[in-house]
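Side project, low priority. Logging it here so it doesn't get lost.
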Amino acid sequence: MRDFADLMHEHHAERLLEWMRRVSADNLPALHSLITGLRRDLDAVTAGLTLPWSSGPVGATPTASR
């Protein structure tokens, strides 16, 4: 799991498929479920690891008092 955390934190999309192959070969059923989920939306996962994003300000900004 540490490899996956590093992959996510450092945005290494190029290492994702290899990590998925290694996990699939291991006897770790709980992680096999994670791999299945990642495969279902691999384009979005890859985009999340490669595209710039921001979790900056969201929602309305109060401009007037009632």
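Brief comment: The helical segments are 2-9, 16-25, 29-40, 42-50.
Revisit when time allows.
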